[in-house]
Amino acid sequence: MSESHDNQSYAEALDSVPSDPETVCSPGLSDNSPWNEKDGDPDVVSWDGPNDPANPRNWPRRKKIGNIVMVSLMVFVVPLASSMFAPGIDQVMLEFHSDDQLIAAFVVSVFVLGFAFGPIMLAPLSEVYGRLKLYWICDLLFFAFSIACAKAQTMGQLIAFRFLCGFFGGLPLACGGGTITDVMDQEERGFAMAIFGAGPMMGPVAGPIIGGFLSQAKGWRWVFWLLAILSGVCAIATFVLMSETYAPVILQKKVDRLKKETGNQNLHSALDSGMTPSVAIKHSLLRPLKLLMFSPAVLGLALFQAFYFGCLYLIFTTFTMVYDEVYHWSPGLQGLSFIPMGLGSVIGTIIFGVASDRILKWKASQNGGVMKPEYRLYLLMPTAFGIPIGLFWYGWAAEEHTHWVVPILGTAFIGVGFFFSMVTIISYVMDAYTEYSASAVASVAVLRSLFGGILPLAGRQMYVTMGYGWGSSLLGFISVALLPVPFVFYYYGERLRTRYPVKLR
């Protein structure tokens, strides 16, 4: 079978993912959908031709970018909350009369555990009810539970509300990939992913900088009041400025309108799955788990990204140790140690935004115009080396008590490496499973968030036992062992998708 562009015919779209015909394709999102030519059935409602302005793929570029920017704003604010609270944790432990360091780490990382369970349950529902309703609901709930965190009176309440913030706040991290595939053609998604991917990296970096000074000046509760204000602004902006982008939901609204206008109750959408709502929900909730269980490519890349994500958050938890115990910085200054990692992410954003789509087209030109999802992994192969380089650099610089700028520079390599591990793998699953991209991204997010929530719990004890040098080296050696992973899936990913198809319909 051959790969194809999203906008080709249905037969070609089925071939675009070399697997069982029931696996995953993108006909429902194609500009040139087959249902425009559905045997002349007068009861089938589809797009009004390939240039129908109601089709999100045909929207003006300004409207497309506007929706992507709104999602990117959400995925900045939510990860901001994951680390913004960290500098004030000593104040929390003092107020709630606890000196348990495991609890101190858990009250920070439990937010990321919410990312693991929320998106895998909520993002697939966007393939039943649409993206916009889910964004509205989860924005409002994130706002509400941020206020609850600010008002928490016990450690148990704070942990529970932090988890719920992550549970509902994590939706845009998974569903945002679906929004991008809804509105952008395959050869344009790299640019969109660069915009989208900056948020999950810049949020955790900016969080400690803001949180360090804010908790020092106003106390830890004001961190959550600020998050509530920011999430409230996002919720209002989402309600006012965003549009529904999921094609089946848009067409179903058209069907409902035409039924009222014509009285013909036999009308149905060309993208109607034919399932009852309960069956559709069941199928949608199972899709991420099916991909993790039965797709070696998704599972392998998800584990690769998950370990790097866990390392990232583990390193985050050690910054306060290193810059307090070794360099004796104040909480406000400790937050500034995250800046080079953010600069690494900015560099990654620029490179990916400029190069990703160009590489896709270049590789496709060498392959008869066929765009393979594996081409998205091209940039990951060299940039993955940034993680082990950064880990060894950071750990031994801190161990030897070098000038404070030396370990900080090492974290810039970690920032570059993690950024590319995130955006390239998400882009890969979006291109490979376009119609169900939200489910595909959620399947990757669940492992990533589990590692991000659990690994930091071992960070303090690991560094106390092994020291900064050997503790970071342990992570670095594991990272070196994982370096072949992107090469394996770049060269053999298509073969694995063909051999192990996943039925998602």
UniProtKB/TrEMBL annotation:
Superkingdom, natural source: Eukaryota
Main location: membrane
TM stretches of this protein: 65-89, 101-122, 134-153, 159-179, 191-210, 222-251, 291-316, 336-356, 377-396, 408-429, 436-458, 470-493
InterPro entries for this protein: MFS, MFS_dom, MFS_trans_sf
GO CC field: membrane
UniProt entry keywords in alphabetical sequence: Membrane, Transmembrane, Transmembrane helix
Family from the record: Belongs to the major facilitator superfamily.
Protein name as it appears in the record: MFS general substrate transporter
Annotated organism of origin: Pleurostoma richardsiae
